[in-house]
Each structure stands twice: as C-alpha cells, then as structure tokens.
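Methods — Computational structure assignment.
A single polypeptide chain was analysed. Its primary sequence is given first, followed by the predicted tertiary structure written as structure tokens.
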Amino acid sequence: MKPSIKHRTLSGALLEEIRQDILSGRYKAGTQLRQDALAESYGVSRIPIREALFQLEAAGLVKIMPQRGAVVSDLSREEIEDVFQLRVLLEPRLLLASAPHLTEGDYERVEAKHADYVQAISANAVNEYGQLNADLHLALYRRANLPRTQQIVTSLLETSDRYTRIQLSNAAAMQRAMAEHAELIQLCRSRRYESAASFLAQHVAAVQNDLVMTLAMTEPVETPA
C-alpha cells in the first residue's frame, strides 16, 4: 500500500474512533483532549491525532482553544437552533430535487434503512441512532443533483448525531421518529412531493423543539446567593 493511502486510511479510522468516543460520552463536554495522551491511547503518532482534532473542530465536536488545546464542545441551544434551522431550509429542497427521480430500487434501499433504524431503536442500540437516521435521510436525497447542498446537509447530519442520541433517549420521541419516517417515505412513494417536503420541515423542526426542551431540563438550576 502506498504510504499516502495508508496514512489517509489511518487518519479516517482514527477520526471515526475519537468521534464515536465523544458521541458515546467517553469524552464528555469540557474534557481536554491532549494530543500526547490521545496518541498513546490509540497507539499512533501525534500527527494523525492533530489532523483528526482539526476535522472534529470543523464538525463542531471539538473547540481548539488558546492555552488549552482541543476541548470537547458543550451541548448548546445556540448550536441546536443553528444546525436544525439550516436543516429545515436545506433538506426539503434536497427532497424536492430527489424524490421525483427515486426508483423502486431506491425505495427498497430507503425502506431497508428504515428497518435498520427501527431495529436499532428496539435493541436500544444508542450508538447507531445518529448514523442510521442520517443514512435514511440521505437515501431519500440521493437523486438530487445538488452536490454542494448534499455536502452541507451531510455535515449537518453528522453534527446532529450527538443531539439525535439525546432526543431519542425519550421513548415517546423514538416512537414518533419511527412513525414520521414511515409517513415521509409513504408521501414520497405516493408522489405527494410538496406535502412530503412540508412534512419533512415539520419533522426536523419538531426534533429541534424536543432537543431544546430536553437540554433545558438537564441544565443546572441556578440558586440565589
């Protein structure tokens, strides 16, 4: 294997491993990620660690701060609103561009993704929720000839992963998510594309509202001095 290819493979695997460790809560919000400690923990040099941390910063999972280095980002209402409001704007556009061109084979893949999503929820496979949710959405958008929008939405869905796990910790939210995904697929299959796009916007906005409320409930209550 060429060294450059081997390096890219290592960097990608390392990035995903650290990302999953953040998403799973092994590295909690506010945790300092020291390059030397990470290099020792993962058995690599500091160079791929540094590259991974820069990419995690771009994904919103890490902040690189003067004097402190890389720190796991806090969960914030501001980021929830920023990410999900962008999704409300962009995902219906992608769906309208894609849905009329989806084939029967595409719908079979979409429904297989939905089945995987339902199975993961039934098995309480929390670590899989975000990726399966993203896979399902992107499968519906795959025929849109809007590569820049696809790229942005893929990044937003990746950032959403951390929040999706929180939202789906609620049993009612899980049931609603499964039902709404099934409804969205059915609207597309029945060629009610405008209705599907409107429903999708409502679906993403509802997740945002759930998350804002959930985050508010977990925030510490300030007591008078």
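Note: The two ends are 63 Å apart (CA to CA).
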